[in-house]
Amino acid sequence: MSGANPKFRRAARIAIVQALYQMDVANAPFKTVVREFRNHRFGYNDESDVVQVDENFFEEVIEGVVGSQNAIDTKISTLLPEKWPLRRLDLTLRSLLRASAFEIMRRPDVPALVIINEYVSIAADFFDGKEPGMVNSILDKIAKEVRASEFGLVGAAPIADTSNESGSS
């Protein structure tokens, strides 16, 4: 994450969750949603009271989630209780898990603990219940499997690259 502004990345992650939610609800193509966010929701240096985000990071994660959604959903689904499949999760929670799982699985430039802390914090901003704990548990398991070396564990099991996959909710 060298060179990245943590404040702008944090704002980008919140926007990513919102954009994925919007795509899920409206069945909107990611390019349309990304363009809407860039043109109408993100601010510029001379504007006050408008959110500034790491726009390139925002778009990279959105595009990555869309491109790897099947692999991401499969990984998340293996960690959910049988009675709570991915399709039953709150849309915001599902969007948050998809974005965070993508970062852990496909963004080795960002430390796993940073990703987990950021998304658990965002979950706490959206939810008052058990959801932040659930997010922490799921992301911790994915990170320890995918990035075992970051946790001092042996035998990392990389997840197959399915970046050309497309998925839908």
UniProtKB/TrEMBL annotation:
Say yes or no: keyword Cell inner membrane present. Answer: no
One term of GO molecular function = RNA binding
Q: Name one Pfam family in it.
A: NusB
A cellular-component GO term for this protein: cytosol
Check the record and name the SUPFAM superfamilies matching this protein. NusB-like (SSF48013)
Q: Which domain of life is it from?
A: Bacteria
| Domain NusB/RsmB/TIM44 residues, every copy | 11-144
Q: Which UniProt keywords apply?
A: RNA-binding, Transcription, Transcription antitermination, Transcription regulation
* GO BP field: DNA-templated transcription termination; transcription antitermination
Give the residue spans that cross the bilayer. Answer: none
Question: So what family is this one in?
Answer: Belongs to the NusB family.
Q: What does this protein do?
A: Involved in transcription antitermination. Required for transcription of ribosomal RNA (rRNA) genes. Binds specifically to the boxA antiterminator sequence of the ribosomal RNA (rrn) operons.
* Annotated NCBIfam families: nusB
Its recorded name reads: Transcription antitermination protein NusB
Q: Which organism is it from?
A: Litorimonas taeanensis
Gene coding for it? nusB
